[in-house]
Amino acid sequence: MPESEKRSILVIDDDKIIRKLILHHLILNNFIPFEAEDSNQAFKILRNEKIDLVLSDVTMEGMDGFDFCQKVRENAKHRFLPFIFVTSKNTLEDKSKAIESGGDDIITKPFDIKELILKTQALIRRSDIYRTYGLKKSLEKSFDEIPAKVLFVDDDPSMAKLFKYNLDKAGFDCKLASSVDEAMRLIKNDQPDIIVSDVMMPKTDGFEFRRMVLKDNSLKDIPFIFLTAKNTEEDILEGYDLGITDYVVKTAGPKLVVAKVSAIINSLGNERKKVISELQEATSSLRAKVVPDSFPEFEGFKISHIHIPFKGIPGGDFIDYYKLDENNLAVILGDVMGKKWGAWYFAYAYAGYIRSALRSVLRTADEYSPSEILEQVNSTVYGDTKVSEVFATLSIIIINNNNKMVKYSGAGDIPIIYNPVNGEIQRIKSKGLLLGFSKKGEYEDAVIQIKEKDRIYLTTDGVIDSRSKTHESFGEDRLFQLITNLKDNNAPLDAIKEKCDKFTDSEYDDDISLILIEAK
Amino acid sequence: MEFFREQTNDVVVISVSLQRATLADAEEFKELLVGEIQKGIKKIVVDLSACEFIDSTFLGGLVVSLKKLTALNGDLRLVGFQPAVHSMFELTRMYRVFESFKSKEEAIKSFS
What we know:
Number of domains of chain A: 3
Low-confidence stretches of chain A: 138-144, 339-343
Oligomer: heterodimer
CATH class of the largest domain in chain A: Alpha Beta
Number of helices of chain B: 4
Number of strands of chain B: 7
CATH superfamily of chain B: STAS domain
CATH topology of the largest domain in chain A: Phosphatase 2c, domain 1
CATH architecture of the largest domain in chain A: 4-Layer Sandwich
Shape of chain B: globular
CATH class of chain B: Alpha Beta
Helix content of chain A: 40-55%
Mean pLDDT of chain A: 81
Order of helices and strands of chain B: EEEHEEHEHEH
């Protein structure tokens, strides 16, 4: 893990041995630890360092842990800083005091170091999710508060002044440009929410300006209104060919322009588009990776995938590989429904749920069972009100490279395709319901005894639902047929991608994900 | 109008007049259904006979509503599966949780 992605943990305890013990394990688990023996040292570290989580003792010299936590919470910067108490006090009164003072969790001494690390990891992940979610909320609100920016482009200064006066009065923040050159300069520095431009201008005209804006990916979605002196039909048609939002005849006056600008700014679609692009930045900065960059190394098997996110917005699909032990690897493919409602970022939460379910199965089960994992994830998701309206499909495969057994269970997922070297290619359908829909998902395991060079394919509905220019769906049968024909192909995923690209002209409506498991 | 609403006694029928019911209209659809539920409607029939295709986001809207309704002892029943829609419900096993009928009348009658 690169240094910059590591999280910093502050450990406060007056017992040096406990401090060293915790520190040692934090380092082993890729955290950057800071230590303090009392609240004074702790405050100093909080001031100077960027701390992601606090592990604090309760009984200390000077200020005790509860008071310390309360003081920390008074600072707005640390109001949501994850905070866990590590204490030998375990009466109900202590626990309620811990929560009252602003703690997020409590671990009692003597503690299991694994539990401490797990709780630390879980709390950090949870606060990441809340941060993104909180960010989204505050972003939406901020649209109400900041006046929308209008860029007004016209070579006639008196005309420009008149419109600016009216737009400013209506509560917009209007900037003027007297030429396209100047307008492009202004746009690059400070992106407007809407552009109003004259058509007839010396040097570069409005149509050319529009083409320039359209060429730039970061600008092409800004609503664009033409202000035109002539209202001949050709003019207007040319304008619409350029995907303009609207046009206004100059003589109609500034009031009409103000009305049109307001109508466009108020249209929800535009705001949402902006929230999405901001969120896009937020996730990438949050490192919310829902698809691993590399394929897992697993003795005796070759595992690979392709993933194409939908138009650059982090989609609902997620892929995870998790090594349960030397001989068992879990392969996970999920699809969170309802991208439109901003639900894509739940893909991140789901990935987290599944990871923690895997961990608990790991701890308790003698034998790994994908259906057991599904049952656990389903009951967690079903009970969690934050994601209770979000549903996901999930395929889980556990491969054992010792006895070459592959166990599969699915929740509302697309049937996996099993393509053995000898024998007939077949779909294997799971019976389970979508995650989060009902309390009991009724998941079952299917077991495949895999042989050398056998292949198993997993996919989500993206490939199947993708469409050609003539609106024909790719369909499950076509995929099945294609895979049948690729039996002797050495790079079947590439071949499938090529076929899909050709079929759809590389325009997809959804995330495209495919995983291939191949026995060596 | 993509969605047409009619009411017979306490049963509300929503007809979806979209050839492709996808994420473009999914949110409006979901809000419409949730709105009905909030108004106290517990018996809803969704007529999909105009739909040649529905995607997972649109299906999500149906699932959210069904989940809400079952919690209130209500139900959401479906009418008019075209082949691709039928296979979508089969693929996701959702035919097991939604009751479906051949005609609106049958679906309405099933509630009484």
